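Worked example 4.2. Below are the chains of a multi-component assembly; read each line carefully before continuing.
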Amino acid sequence: MDSNLAAIVDEALAAADGAANLGDLSALSARYLGKKSALAAAKKALGQLEPAERKAAGQAINEARERIEAAFAARKTLLASAERAVQLEGERLDLTEIYGEVRRGHYHLVTQARDRLEDVFVGMGFRVAEGPEVETAWYNFEALNIPDWHPARGSFDTIFVNLGEPEEVMLRSHTSPVQIRTMENEEPPIYIVAPGRTFRTDAADATHLPAFNQIEGLVVDRGITMGDLAGTIDEFVHAFFGGDVQSRLRPSYFPFTEPSAEFDISRADGSWLELGGCGMVHPNVLRNCGIDPDVWQGFAFGFGIDRLAVMRYELDDIRELVNNDVRFLEQF
Amino acid sequence: MKVLLSWLREFAPDIVGDPVELGETLSALGLAVEEMTITGEGLDGIVVGKVLDLRPHPDADKIQLVDVDRGDGEALQVCCGAFNMAVGDLIPFATIGTIMPNGMEIAQRKMRGQMSNGMCCSAEEIGLGADAEGIMILEGVGDDQLGAPITEALGIETDVLWDLEVNANRPDAMSVAGVARDLAAGLGIPFAFPEFPFTEGGGPAAESVKTVSEAAKVELLDASLCGRFLARVLRNVTVGTSPQWMQNRLTAAGMRPINSVVDISNYVMLELGQPNHTYDLAKVPNGHLRVRRATEGETITTLDDIERTLTAADGVIANGDDLAVGIAGVMGGASTEISETTTEVLLELAWWDPPSISRTVRRLNLPSEASVRYRRGVDWGVNMERAAARFVQLLQAGSVESGGATTDVGMIDERGTTPDRSPLRVRPAKVNGLLGTELSADAMADHLASIGFVITPAGDDLDVVIPTWRWDTETETDVAEEVARMYGYENIIKTVPKGTDAGALSPYQIARRRVREVLVGAGCDETQPMPFLAPGDLAAAGLPEEGVTLTNPLVHEESVLRTSLLPGQLKTVAYNQSHRIETMRLFEIGHIYLPAPEGQLLPDEREALAVALAGSEAPAAIELLKLLESTFSLPNVQIRPTTPPGLHPTRAAEVVIAGQHRGEVGEVDPVVAEAFGVAGRVAWLQLDLGAVLNGPHGRRRYRRISKYPSSDIDLAFVIADDIAAANAEATIRKAAGDLLVRLDLFDSYRGTGVPDDARSLAYRLRFQAADRTLTDDEVATVRQSVIDTMAKKHGAALR
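Applying the procedure described above to all two chains together yields the following structure tokens:
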């Protein structure tokens, strides 16, 4: 390599090292490697050399170019990395600096309890039936074997509405009207649960609401027995409350079932908690819905949904379920 | 129904054992124990004291000083707040160191400078009555008892009091004897009625012997009203105070002692379940009673001195002049009421038709201890004579000192219609098939016989005579319940029905759960306000006032059923804002009750969805609508600008899905928000959820993704303000045709270069064909078609 070429290389290498940024480097790269560079001129001049010298000279120029290119490439990597580092540092964020609130909403406690109950009963082979909240005396009382003079009518503390004759239309005082509507419209076998809102003239206090939620079950099939009722309650209690919780039936009275029972569940301290009412569907009720009680037998049961939510979370005031205070709703 | 163990033992002496276990047995028989108390305990240290002197407290007006002899002759000074005592009275006296039933210990102390050495007690303080006003004066206790423990002096024994919940189908258990019968059967021990001996036609002071038919006459004019009417005449009656033991029992059972005659009447009702009525015979001319239905509008002044107007459905007892002297089974009349001067009494025991009594009680709202029994159906059998005998016996026993009451010979016993009690054929196979048991006919017969059913075998079956104290029991199923009750519900083996259908939620129920899921995911809290509104709420919410009203609301503020979820949501927002929650995202799924359609009785009840976003503007509600639209692939969702009632006049729209009105979206009218005390904007969405989810939705079709490149063009149009963006968008889609695969509005501009009553809307259109690469010419053609159509249809110029 002639001294001239060596000087070009030295100068180019020094220039590359001295480039402060990628822009300068790019300009210098053009100066030392571009079409107007000394190297390009030297290459052009090769033609004037003797063929014998030409090969060696050409080789020297290529080597010089490679050295310069390598130097520029190395410098470029260095500068690019430095510049990226500066840029990234400039983008630094404190990820714990959060404005506003990002949150999922919340299902109402009653919905949570109701969905869970529905899921358990669906798993046991039931469908979920629903019905209107404003009902006629037929569905709320008469078809359920509660004639107008019956003492049990008074115990329902019914809220009536100003439609039809006096006391002809009411807010349903239980979910049992759904039993009648289902039996009127469907042929047995019937396996349903009917969750929904019910109403009574109970002034709102820590343990009462005039509007509350119940769930009702109805089975009508051939050969259904009271043993089936007790077993179904037991299976539900195990699935919903846990395998170690026991259930029992006690004699009771409802006009629409015969025999009738209350059902209790066992508590950890050995005592029993009354959960709901149940019984074998009264033959009159089946007849009222056009079902022959000599062919079909059935059972029904019902209990409160709100109370399950109250028990589960040990709420000290059931009114929280209808106050809809966001500070309450967002706890669950 | 409150029953004392000692009272039960008069019918079943072998009832023994742990009170808690006995209570469990009662519960298992269907007589649920609501409360159990041990009575007569905690009275140690309370003795019979005598008032020796009474004098004012020198420094206090509301207490006086009493000197009491506690039995040792010494005068103990006591400060006392009651003033009903007289010198010489015997009183219950709590000595120093006594622990009162309420836990308070009696100590020597000074009251306003005066020493007090014990306490004079009221009946209430020692659990012997409800009277808390004055000190209990011990009538009927003699001076020889001075210093004796109060329990000894009053014959108080430790006892167990159960408060039982008696179901409406158990008329028998509305009596001590009936409870004893059931409990004895449950325990497998004997039950028997004691004899109630009395002297008929004479008595200690008999002057002349009369027969009842000389003194009284009963005409039973309506056999459907009265199944049996039994009467006795009692003479030489003195109305006084009943013995302490009877007062103790009545008090324990929750009744207030009144006088000897009333107390016996109540005692017999509690003990034997037979309500009864006493007339002052002197006030019933010729002792003549007529039992009939009332005439429409007939009036009577009842015992409580209130004049009541009757209907033809009510039953009355009238006198010989046919003037009503009592409402059958409900309340006696004032005109024949016994008083302190009464000496001759006409005693009535009757069986009234339960539905008749129920209707009258409900209409007059006059429940009583008697009518609650008549409504369930009292015993029309031999128990009626027994109750009459018990009445006379107690009256005679209680009036020995005054010469003794007498009763005329015989009874009036008129009969109307009572339930048929001919044998009922019961099939043990059917009973087992209902209960899931395998009981033999004999076992069933034994269970039934233990509670007084009379059984005769009839081949494989049983002929069952249902006792007269079980009015409610009529059918084979009713009898099956009795078998189950006596066999024990807990002994029925638990099985599970063999239904073969799979359980499932309906498509609607599944979709409704997804609505909740999507909205909860979008940060909304689910609310469930009660559906009651105050009058005026609907008007305040700008809604037509057509809500169904309640006949008997608990409070005026909750007397209207909602026709929209809007008022309830606004109240919820206001409630939270008043608790410093300013912004919130709420939703609700609940029923609304629209006016009944013509010819229908029930309201048009629908399940609605509402979303209320406090602190957000209308587009936030649109976003949630879009979220639901894409979740359920709702077909052809249109937002048509109108002003639904209650919503912002310029920021609200009707939601139309598949051509049907399905709800409203936008912002709540600021005037409405203000009326409900809501601050700031509320974005609002309400949908007829039932209609939306039961309508077409969720239909999705596969389209192969094109392999060919797509081309984007941007077009900005100057569009007049009165043309909705939705309309412009629809026009673009239609003009662009099938090649348009995506359309995005990316800018809305007002200002320089755009007329005042218009805005520039900039759209990006992406074109793509499924089967080829589009040429520039093709794109240009579609582009021009869009531009031309926009100009033609909306007068929109390209900007």
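Take a moment to check your reading of the output against the notes. Chain B has six domains: 2-40+159-187, 46-153, 212-415, 424-488, 507-694, 711-798. The domain at 507-694 of chain B is CATH 3.30.930.10 (BirA Bifunctional Protein; domain 2).
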